[in-house]
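Lecture 7, part B: from sequences to assemblies.

Below are the input chains for today's worked example.
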Amino acid sequence: MRKVMCLYLGIIFLLPGIVYASQIYGFITSNGKVHVRTRIEIFCPEADPKPIAEGITGDDGSYRINVPKTGQCSLRLPAVQGISPTTPPSVRVFSYPDPVQYNLRLIRPSGSASGYVLERR
Amino acid sequence: MPDKRNDPGTWLEVLKVVLMPVAVVGIGFLFNSSLNLRQQRDNNIRLYTEMMGRREEADSGLRKDMFNSMLSTFLLRDPKLQLPRQERLSQDVLSLELLAYNFHDSLNIAPLFKDVRRRIKEQKDPSHLEHRLERIAKEVKERQLSALAASGTVATGDGPPEGEFTFGVDHTVPNHTPPVLCLSAAPPDISADSTRATQSERHYRWFTLRSGEYDAKRGIRVYLFVSTPIDKDRCMAGPKEGETPFDVPDVAKDFWVDLFDFPLIDNTRLSLDERCAVALIQSFGDDSSFHIALAYFPGSRASLREKPFYDDVMHELVHGHSMETERGIPEKNKPPNSQSGNEGQSGTQ
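Predicted structure of the full complex, as structure tokens:
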């Protein structure tokens, strides 16, 4: 009986989050090739220290992340080194009620020996 | 006495006599078969055209009946029908759904959408029907934008009210503030033998798009500027120091964009029979940011409602395509197509 109650409560509390979750999707390329198996973190709002959602790019460089919040967010690639060693490459994204596509490109700017910049295509 | 049988001249004569009828028969056969083939092809084309014509006729008849019955739902209400208000609204939304999915490319249904939304908002619990209405509009816009992307360029961007819209780097002039877009009305070539405009024939334009105030009833006000056609290098390099895109203007106008404005129908005419349209795709719940699409496409892809100007058609017929590319150089003396405060982008509403 207790298990059933827990299940019901779980459905009641989790369902609205799933229903109202927004989605950000697209693909990431780097040097004209898809960027595979890369971890992605979404921070909403941008200054939030903890990621609100996480994902990973597939073998085709595509990703699809459900974001449980709408608003201005930051998409970061924590496993890639950005221009500054302490900050990973990031790009501003917007999470809307309906899914939004963000195709991104990871580039190494000319003159920079190491470090990447993430750009929206 | 020389033997005539060994004389090469005799053999040549014999050969001539034998080959002449063979050649005549062969040529006749070839001519006949080519004529037959051509006739067969013509017959096939005629049959195909006839079939297409009949199908089009039947389709038009069906669409006409469908259109009349759906439009009468909105315009001619039977006073004897005493449907509850909520029920009537559901019926209106269903009719609008049918109208939108079947006639979105030939009819401006934005006023109907706005009217139904206004009536829905008067209800106690409008959210369900309002979401359904917005979903229909979004689906139709996405269909139109994907069709336009196949023949032109569609750039999507985000921005708050009273600010700048930001777009992807593929469409933006690098290191330029405020953002300037560089777009072509032709899509990238898929193959080398593509019949569409090749790189050398293609021209580009600068676009700037800024947002103004937001009004819940009218949508978001946008300020659009479009330059005259310029070549790719100049476009990608962006305006030089001291130069602004406004030095080569084709269109400079502001208008309101709502969720129910459809790019195929409500668009802005540019020179060279081209069009551009701004579509509002979605916004945050609190309307602090808007997701928009800017489409730039040839006028031939605009809706059936928009007829080309006669002088544009005449120019196409007389001068052909080569002249069009020559006209792709900025026409500095041409006055900009400037309008202000229109509800729609075409300025006709």
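Note for the exam: The two ends of chain A are 53 Å apart (CA to CA). Keep this in mind when comparing with the next example.
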